[in-house]
Amino acid sequence: MNKICNPYTIVPKGKELNDLDYLNDLLITSKSMLIKYANALTDISNNDLYKSFKKLFDEESIIERDILDLMFQKGWYYFEEVELGRIKETYHKFNNLKKEL
């Protein structure tokens, strides 16, 4: 596995929360909010309410991405390099499932 990452920024160890702890908490909260907004969007029938929730969802997506970018810059979040064949395999798998529906 090839990791795509930046150098790890050392954080103090101890009982007190550090920057990594705070960002992890923010990331978990943001992802949770995105899931809740996505679920709500699938159930809303009122167009104005849908637009309001969609705007909140879009804004939260940007926040979540900013948190990930900051964590990536500090070396606290990384990505795995994936072979093109694996990407194509996964695409075809889900495309076939979609066709079955």
What do you see in this structure?
The chain is mainly alpha-helical. It has helices at 19-43, 47-73, 84-100, and strands at 3-4, 79-80. It has one domain (3-7, 16-100). It is flat, with a radius of gyration of 18 Å. A two-stranded antiparallel ribbon has the order 1-2. The two termini are 34 Å apart.
Topology:
Blueprint: E1 3-4, H1 19-43, H2 47-73, E2 79-80, H3 84-100
Antiparallel strand pairs: 1-2
Helix pairs in contact: 1-2
Based on DSSP secondary structure assignment, what is the total number of beta strands?
A: 2
* Helix-strand category: mainly alpha
Helix content: 55-70%
Overall geometry: flat
Uncertain parts: none
Number of domains: 1
Assess the beta-strand content as a share of residues.
under 5%
Intertermini distance: 34 Å
Structural descriptors:
101 residues; mainly alpha; 2 strands; flat
Task: Please summarize what this structure is.
The chain is mainly alpha-helical and 101 residues long.
